[in-house]
Structures are given as structure tokens and as C-alpha cells.
């Protein structure tokens, strides 16, 4: 097989600024783009040197020369588009969150499984060299038994990305589905554990009068009473991002690592003192993701974040939304089971 040939479902900012350049750098081809607007789709195709533009999903999926699709439409469209792609025999890389509901995410996973196609969720952080190095350190016992994780992921939402993220909860707007889901995927990849229950407080801090939450703090409990604390926001313009892993024998302090770029620093503190730990590479996160995806298609590896991990991240985000709305601690397992998730 040569490089994968892709259909882009959604003429989005991330497709233009991140995915298309990364595809070309790893020898894969963005062949076609789908947009609900013929004018927007044509303009996107011209600006990004993509050969074909469609307004019909069925027409694009009917092409034999498209191997895989990248879905970056608004969140409420993910399920229908991913399932259609799977039925058409196309491998699926879907933006987070995988879907708007647990049922829809499970339907995507089932459809891809039945069709025998690869499914991945585009949570970019586990692809970062810094995150992969933290995972190695934790697995090697560098911090002993992990006790707590603190995540700092409060940023300023660029004006070009506002719109539905602030004003349309029905389309999946709000900082929880946008950023807290990334935190959940990152912590799961770092430690191999998932949240059992979530507490959260959210609000709207920005001057834009958002109808969806634009700031949230959460506390999660994982197995063996590992605690995770997160601060996510669209409203903070001058803070650094980062995360800390604290254990019985040491702490990992990571700064500047909750971004789309291969940047940031790692420090390990333990009884021997503090020292900087270099990641093994500074590869582009999307190149790492796309290479792993192609290897999975070839049957020689697995995606960086597969559909099941994407489902877990969605469940944590939905639990956080429910917790913030009700002032209850919410069981993630209850969310996954489709039950009323209040713990009390």
C-alpha cells in the first residue's frame, strides 16, 4: 500500500491548518473535501490544493480511490457521518468528542467493527513526545504509586474558533466537550486508568455572553483513590498549560505540554533532587497520529487513541457536564450505562 488517500468531511480550520499539512509530510494524500456549502468547499479545495470538492456525502464515499475519512464537522454530525463512512468501507479518524452521546459513540464503534475498518479519535495530546515520555516514566516507577494528577488547560479561544463553541450547546459547544475530553484522554493514556466519578463546577466568564460554559474545574476519582484535578477554560490569555503527576516516590512537572505543538518541558523531582527529562522526540503530533493510523490500517499497529478510548473520554466529559449542571458527583459507569448518573 502507498500512502492513504483521504476524504475530508468538513472544511474546517483544523483540517486546513493541521491535518492537510501533516498528511502531506507523511506521504498521505488529501484527495477530496466535503462541505454543506458548495462555495465554501470549492474555496477550501482551492486554498488547500485539494483536487475534489463535494456537497454529497454519499457521492464522496462512493469513490473507490478514497481509503479513509477525517471527520471535523460540528459534533452532532459525527455519528451519522462516521457510520456512513464505515458502511462504505472507509477507515475513520474522527475529531473529538467521538459523538454527542454514549449511544451514538457505541454505534460508531459497532459500525466500524462490523465493517472491519480502523476507527480512531483525534485526541492529539497522547501523540506528543512529552506525553509519551511521561507515560514511560510512570510505567518505569519514576514517581512510585501515582497519587494525583493536576492538569492546567485554560487558554484563550481564538476568535476564528468561536461561533458554535460558545453559542450552540446543541452542536456540542462548551469547554467541557472541547477541552475536558482532551484531558480525560491524556490522563487515560498517561496512567492507563479511567475516571470512576467526577465532580465539577462550570460557568461563563467571557465578555462574549456565551450560552455554553467557557470555564470549568473538575475533580475526578480513579481506581486506588488516584485523584485528578483539571482547570479548563476559553477565557485565560496569559497562563501556561501543563500537568503534574504526583506519586509516593516523586513528581513529574510538565509545562507547556497541553498544546497542539511539540513543545514543553519535563522535570522529575524525587529524593535525588530535580532534573530535566528530555522527550525522546519532538515530532509533530498530527504526523505521529497519521503514521500510527496508517500502520493500524496495514494491520501493523494500533491508533494513538482508538474508538474505545474516545468513548471513555466522552463519558468523562458527559459526566463532568452533568456534575456541573446538578452539583452532584457523577458516576462515569452510570453515564456509560445510560443510567441517571447522580451519586448523591
Question: What do you see in this structure?
Answer:
With 344 residues, the protein is of the alpha/beta class. The chain folds into two domains: 5-123 and 287-305, 3-Layer(aba) Sandwich (Rossmann fold), CATH 3.40.50.720; 125-284 and 315-336, Dihydrodipicolinate Reductase, domain 2 (2-Layer Sandwich). The protein has eleven helices and 15 strands. It has helices at 13-25, 38-47, 57-61, 78-87, 102-115, 129-139, 164-167, 175-191, 285-297, 307-326, 332-336; strands spanning 5-9, 29-34, 52-54, 68-71, 91-95, 119-122, 146-154, 197-203, 215-221, 227-233, 242-247, 250-255, 265-270, 273-276, 330-331. Helix 6 (129-139) crosses helix 8 and helix 8 packs across helix 10 (307-326). The longest helix is centred in the last third of the chain and has 20 residues, at 307-326. The N and C termini lie far apart (54 Å). The model has no long low-confidence stretch (mean pLDDT 94).
CATH class identity of the largest domain = Alpha Beta
Instruction: Give the overall silhouette.
Output: globular
Radius of gyration: 20 Å
Largest sheet: 9 strands, mixed
User: How far apart are the first and last residues' alpha carbons, in Å?
Assistant: 54 Å
CATH topology-level fold name of the largest domain: Dihydrodipicolinate Reductase, domain 2
What is the average per-residue confidence, as pLDDT, rounded to a whole number?
94
